[in-house]
Write a structure and sequence with these properties.
The chain is mostly beta strands. It is built from no helices and seven strands. The strands form two sheets. It has a five-stranded antiparallel sheet with strand order 1-4-5-6-7, with no helix packed on it. The radius of gyration is 12 Å and the shape is elongated. It starts with a strand and ends with a strand.
């Protein structure tokens, strides 16, 4: 796994499907971005990542 560098954090929660998320973006060494967010209702952390630099995104999956 490549190291991640945190590149941003949402200052406010983002509503999605009646859930509250506090997303945080991270940048892999190869240029792909990853997003981590938490469902505050279930306390589940989710991850979504670029499949290639400047490319499409994976589905949001629980970690």
């Amino acid at each position: 796994m490549l190291p991640l560098a945190v590149v941003g954090r949402s200052a406010a929660p983002v509503a999605a499907a009646d859930l509250m998320w506090y997303p945080e973006a991270a940048l892999n060494a190869d240029g792909r971005m990853g997003i981590f967010a938490m469902d505050t209702a279930s306390r589940t952390t989710y991850h979504k990542w670029q499949v290639e630099p400047n490319g499409g995104w994976s589905p949001m999956v629980p970690v």
